[in-house]
Amino acid sequence: MAASRTRVVVASTAGIFVESLDWTIYGLLAPYFAGQVFPGADRVTQVLGAYLVFAAGFVARPLGSFLMGRITDTRGRRAGLLASVSLIALGSAVIALVPTHAAIGAWSAVIVVAARLLQGIAMGGEVATAATFVVESAPPERRHRYGAFAYSGDAFGTLAGTIVLAVLVGALGVSGVQSGGWRIAFGVAAACGLLALWIRTGVPETPVFEQARAAGPVPVRPLLRAHRGRMLLAFMLTIGSTMGVYFGSVYLPEFAQHTGRYTADQATAVQPIALVALVLAMIASGFLADRFGPLPVIRAGFTAAAVLVVPLMLGLAHGWLPYAVAGPLFTAGVGLQLGVTPVAGARLFPVPIRAVALGVPAGTAIALFGGTFLYVAEWLIDHGALGWVPVYAGIGLTVSAVGSWLVRERLMYPVDTLAGTFAAASAEQRRTTAPVTTTEELA
173: phi > 0 → left, psi -120 to 50 → alpha, else beta; which? Predict the structure, then answer.
């Protein structure tokens, strides 16, 4: 039993770690490899092109959320775990080996775009699939701490990406990384993806999915229609979560450099402190949620991050607060909800649609607000509006804070049975097909 539970955590964490590592490496190294891959008359144009492709990878996420979600809901949680991490590793390997713009012209950028779209499809289902797997496999009294440990892989992946960049810059120098050293980072991401694939091959299917498969097919469309309101809540919760993560864990060093108070080396050296704070807050949130319930923890995290982001970042920009204080305080607020929100979100939906109903709204929010965050932030700063970057993040976090207060415990499904699933499907099917013949029935 202990070995089985360990596999649950390790298998879930491995894929989330690889997803975060790859996404972080691309975001951090975009200014380094942009000149070799993307056309442009100046560095700003090339970097904006790299960030635009970063956003393009997210465009594929909603489609990936549906495709990977359907695989997970029909073929099994294990099949979804294996498919997503395989495609992520393949995409990293392609980028590591792509010829330069000088060698093949615009085809270099085309290949990178294709690799990012492939990864976007895979990553669109990764979070929901992992959340579904944790929810259905973890012991009930430890469900949220299991989820928190698994989703701390997101912060560990970001931290690992930061360390990889720091090592490369220290060993090769900025010019060495720009001239081809960046390929090593994507090679590392591909190797980690293959390791995660090997780890996931040993996980068993979840018992509740086996129970659902044995019970026979369930009409999916009526179930999805019946849960549209909950899908909207999942969308709202993801907006601030993804914006907070990409601001605090990926873009913060670049933001600090744009203030003129930190060099690239100084920002890279301090950023691990903010990432450690993110990890600790995520792990703590799991224990707190198991003790007091997930909703108070999620609400506290979103509210704190929404309230603090503007004063903390403006304090950093104006020199009132050092990076080592402003960064960790912000990421701690983000981490307090990040460790619990995916698992709580999975419980909003019944077993037959759990992955796709969570994945599609979450993937759409990530595509619209997470994938574009780096580009929007860089565009604002390029137009002299550095102070609007934390305001923009604060708006997204406020939306999620409001959404967290709209979620109620009564909306959560039991995770170890099919209770409520068939009732919800049949009730929605009756509602949408029964003819309305009287005013009373219409009301």
Answer: left
